[in-house]
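Deliverable D2.4 — example input (structure tokens):
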């Protein structure tokens, strides 16, 4: 039985009343796999309403299937222009050595990722090709009540490429009848999940969807001083995105206090429903010049290429592991398909950023705290 790790305890200083107002929930995990409903439901109802499952849920383990590895996806240039001309595409073929290939971190709002989409074989194959090059991929809009959707996707991914991916999925969150989950899919041969992921509760109900938080570390086999980091998976509501990002700024203070002495690298990833310009001019992040987005206003992140909503926010000084290589995967160019065909995959594009394998921030705290879940 896994116990609630140190991440769920209170760290740092502050008033008792303030800390009591901050509630952190730990998700039950088995071998690093996600939290799922045990109750299968009709897929049509599931993706029309997005309502939460019945009471009763359990953790499932994602076994790595045995089999012969398929050939990796062809090395192509999947990027739209970015402000960094030396952007590195997220493909394993670009660098063959696992110890020199940078850590590839990404985010993807897979529009209404549920049973209906999972039954489209060509879309699932495209999603596997997208996911395979990433070491950690944060996902938004998992709407399925059927636990097998993500589990089978990861099992198929492993079978196709002879890989060792695992996953962690949060509970349903949302204010209305539409609710969704956030998830992480990660390559266990490259990173390990440290402690148990958790949902950061929002007792004042300032967020439509509470963030799903996980801490990862590069495997010791790849580095003598492995990079560790906390990912905060967010999906802000388009009607209240600026106000919600203000609250995210407040939660940042709490997270830094919680991980004090253990971690200094925090990555806020996901669908912000705000352009970088608005994020850093119209919210509390305007008073945080030390925080930057990896993508600027010139990089469109939706499939129609007219919005810059998806991003990764990082602390410039603390997270010096960021290699200033980032971009988006243009689905039309990547698969040589039409816009309508790309929209079958998602109305958002996957985004990526490259990081060093070695810890290099001002606080050398990698490896501190509880042991890895897997």
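Example output (designed residues):
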């Amino acid at each position: 039985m896994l116990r609630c790790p140190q991440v769920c305890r209170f760290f740092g200083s502050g008033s008792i009343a303030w800390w009591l107002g901050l509630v952190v929930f730990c998700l039950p995990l088995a071998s690093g796999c996600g939290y799922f409903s045990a109750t299968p439901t009709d897929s049509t109802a599931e993706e029309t309403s997005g309502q939460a499952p019945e009471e009763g849920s359990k953790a499932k383990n994602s076994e790595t299937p045995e089999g012969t590895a398929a050939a990796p996806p062809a090395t192509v240039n999947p990027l739209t222009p970015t402000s960094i001309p030396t952007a590195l595409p997220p493909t394993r073929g670009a660098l063959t050595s696992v110890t020199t290939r940078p850590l590839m971190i990404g985010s993807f709002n897979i529009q209404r990722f549920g049973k209906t989409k999972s039954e489209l074989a060509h879309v699932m194959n495209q999603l596997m090709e997208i996911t395979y090059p990433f070491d950690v991929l944060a996902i938004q809009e998992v709407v399925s009540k059927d636990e097998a959707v993500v589990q089978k996707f990861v099992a198929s991914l492993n079978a196709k490429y002879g890989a060792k991916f695992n996953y962690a999925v949060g509970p349903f969150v949302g204010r209305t009848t539409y609710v969704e989950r956030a998830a992480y899919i990660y390559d266990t041969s490259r990173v390990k999940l440290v402690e148990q992921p958790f949902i950061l509760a929002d007792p004042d109900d300032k967020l439509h969807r509470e963030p799903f938080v996980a801490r990862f570390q590069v495997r010791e086999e790849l580095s003598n001083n492995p990079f560790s980091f906390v990912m905060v998976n967010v999906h802000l509501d388009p009607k209240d995105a600026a106000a919600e990002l203000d609250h995210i700024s407040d939660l940042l203070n709490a997270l830094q206090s919680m991980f004090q002495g253990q971690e200094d690298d925090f990555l806020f990833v996901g669908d912000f429903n705000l352009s970088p310009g608005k994020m850093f001019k119209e919210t509390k992040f305007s008073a945080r010049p030390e925080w930057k987005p990896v993508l600027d206003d010139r990089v469109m992140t939706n499939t129609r290429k007219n919005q810059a909503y998806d991003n990764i926010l990082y602390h410039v000084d603390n997270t010096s592991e960021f290699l200033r290589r980032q971009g988006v995967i243009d689905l039309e160019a990547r698969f040589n398909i039409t816009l309508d065909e790309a929209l079958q995959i998602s109305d958002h594009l996957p985004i990526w950023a490259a990081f060093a394998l070695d810890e290099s921030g001002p606080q050398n705290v990698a490896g501190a705290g509880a042991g890895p879940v897997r």
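DSSP finds nine helices and 15 strands in the chain.
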